[in-house]
Specification:
One of its GO terms (molecular function) is DNA binding. By secondary structure, the chain is an alpha+beta fold. It has 15 helices and 9 strands. The protein folds into 3 domains: 70 residues, no CATH class; 94 residues; 154 residues, Intergrase catalytic core (hpI Integrase, Chain A), CATH 1.10.443.10.
Length: 399
């Protein structure tokens, strides 16, 4: 079968012309194909153009008759029966749960519309609203609109739509706003406001210290157990993440966000000492395998953010989130110890130094000062005593 300049039109091994295309999903949920070498009058195609025009006629006829159920499909039904089940099967449960609100917003906007009735203008109007009147951050607006575009592309993939009209509009770029972090002095201000005399206050201190000094992801830190620490060798294994539905309804997964996230990092002596003291105190109040726990149950990630923001306000430093402590750890390593990218990459559990540079390149010093000092007086300058080239041009600049 040989392709031609017309999509859906082919030539067989005998050079005979025919068309073939997928009719789309029918009322029974099947995907029938249509293939023919003749027009509606039974005449063999003499040109590729004839075959193409006949194929378009048959497509329109099918839409009006056999494909009625498919082409009357609303966006709401398509999302609930096709796109959302597909998406749920492709991603982690935690990712799916985080996207549910996005799906609900799209269904609220386009749910009653038939898929074939969604126009480029509808998409552009929604895009404008997301950017100007929704009140959403640019990053969240980007996520919502990107999901709309992906859902319509999936409808094209299933041959429910012929084209994705949203692709005629511009995508919404993510915000390039730089994440706020704590530098060393900010961190010192925060811990100066903390007190470990009370049990819960002790936990709060350990939590903030652990995240700042290790750079683990929030879900990785909440899943850490005492078995993950080798106090003698000063090592910490990062092998799990935690997924929540409710505080007492959670699942510790035996893997991290990425395969390269499975790692073992070294702990400094101060951190080891702080953890040893916390382990002793925690054991007096509860039986817990989890490090960051006061009652044997894991803390929720919202609790982590609440603790961080509470002490940030007391210390008068930026009110960052748990994820920003990971960024703060990187900044601390680079600015205080000039850590190289390979070491930082391995400590963070990135798949390659390129990933680390993508997010943190701006934190490394440019070292221009050292270079320009070396450049000074490096070139020997000895000019000729007389011109060696005759200038032909404006007389005013010859001399």
């Amino acid at each position: 079968m040989q392709s031609t300049r017309y999509h859906g039109v082919y030539r067989d091994k005998n050079n005979a012309i025919f068309y073939q295309f997928n009719l789309g999903k029918d009322e029974n949920g099947k995907y029938p194909k249509k293939k023919s070498r003749v027009d509606k009058n039974g005449k063999l195609f003499e040109t590729e153009k004839e075959a193409y025009e006949e194929m378009l006629r048959v497509k329109q006829e099918y839409k009006a008759v056999a494909g009625k159920a498919t082409y009357a499909l609303t966006y709401k039904v398509f999302m609930e029966q096709q796109f959302i089940p597909m998406y749920k099967g492709e991603v982690e449960e935690s990712t799916f749960l985080n996207r549910k609100n996005t799906f609900e917003k799209l269904i609220k906007r386009f749910g009653d519309k038939k898929l074939i009735d969604i126009t480029t203008k509808d998409c552009e109007t929604y895009r404008t609203w997301l950017l100007s009147k929704s009140g959403f951050s640019k990053s969240y607006a980007s996520l919502i609109y990107g999901t709309l575009r992906r859902s319509l592309s999936y409808a094209v993939q299933l041959d429910i739509l012929n084209k994705n009209v949203s692709l005629k509009t511009k995508s919404i770029g993510k915000s390039k706003q730089q994440t706020e972090i704590w530098d060393k002095s900010d961190f010192e201000k925060v811990i100066s406001k903390m007190c470990t005399k009370k049990y819960y206050g002790h936990l709060e201190f350990v939590l903030i210290w652990l995240y700042y000094m290790t750079g683990v992801r929030v879900s990785e830190g909440l899943a850490l157990t005492w078995k993950d620490i080798d106090f003698e060798k000063g090592k910490l294994k990062v092998m799990h993440t935690i997924q929540f539905k409710k505080r007492h309804d959670y699942h510790i997964k035996p893997y991290t966000k990425t395969q390269s996230g499975l790692r073992t990092i070294m702990l400094d002596k101060d951190t080891l000492s702080i953890l040893e003291q916390w382990k002793i105190r925690q054991a007096k109040h509860c039986e817990s395998d989890l490090i960051l726990s006061y009652d044997g149950q894991p803390l929720h990630r919202s609790t982590v953010n609440r603790i961080i923001k509470r002490y940030a306000r007391l210390a008068g430093v930026p009110e960052i989130c748990g994820k920003a402590l990971r960024h703060s750890h990187v900044s601390y390593l680079i600015n205080e110890f000039n850590a190289d990218v390979l070491m930082v990459s391995r400590r963070l559990g990135h798949s390659s130094p390129e990933i680390t540079l993508k997010y943190y390149a701006h934190l490394w010093p440019r070292n221009d000062e050292w270079i320009v000092q070396q450049m000074a007086k490096n070139i020997k300058v000895k000019l000729s005593d007389k011109p060696l080239v005759d200038f032909i041009g404006n007389a005013n600049v010859r001399n």
